[in-house]
Write a structure and sequence with these properties.
mainly alpha, disordered N terminus, rod-shaped
Amino acid sequence: MADPVTGQSALSTPMTTPEATLPPETPANLPGVSAQPSASGASSVWFEALPEGLKANPTLQNFKSKDVAAVAESLVNAEKLIGGSLRLPTDKDTPEERAAKMEKVFTQLGRPAKPDGYVIQQPSADTGVPWNAQQAESFKSVAHKIGLTQAQAQALVEFDVQRALAAQVDTADAYRTCLEQLEHGDGTLSGWGAATKTMLGLSRRTAATYFDPDTLRQIEATGLANNPKFVRALASMGKELMEEGLIVGGRDGMTDDGGISGMQAELESLEKDSKSAYWDARHPGHDAAVSKAESLRRALLELTPTAR
């Protein structure tokens, strides 16, 4: 910005007219006021005319060597700044005053006018993260109440998606470890072997019989659903319930999970063909067929106590 013009001016131009001819009301007639320019070239007449208390003010000291136009411009700019500034709540504000101030702060920072003004981008389907539209709407209300901007609200949603993705990875690892221990044992308990699918299905049916969906979700959230000992306990309960006909789905319903009827059919298939590897000791697959049959028999005994 160009400097102010300092041409003909009673405040900035040295006067050649004798002081005696100046009008009485000019600053030159004031006691202690000099009409001569300051060392910097700008008139300090206005500053010299100030009371001593104001002259000592640090803010005004910054303008001491500037002319009136520059001072006026600074004053106008300061007024604009004050008009657009944020007034933060203080301890002296009433709850109503505090709320009113915060509303203005949130609005000026960029918060939408209403909760439905937020545009929340849900995760893509290929992430596998479930999306709850009702919860998303509830989040908008909370975000508006605490004054989040659009960008801040979306950032929190994206953070929650990443957290859910990380939890999925952890859950998948825990699930694989649990299945491994259930099938092969963990050093303290023997594995289920060929009966793993069936026993796991039995555990699930027992859980569905005793726990409502909300409780099941809480159990999964704690990690207990991937605890081999807990899953085994459910299977043990399920065997007794199945015998009494109290378990959801019953004995026949377990066939879909590789149940008893399916295991019986597989064992019969191994044993009935006299030319199969099971009966032929010289067959390369003989040992594996025998081991499979023994595993199926143990599993059937485990699942059908009355047959022992």
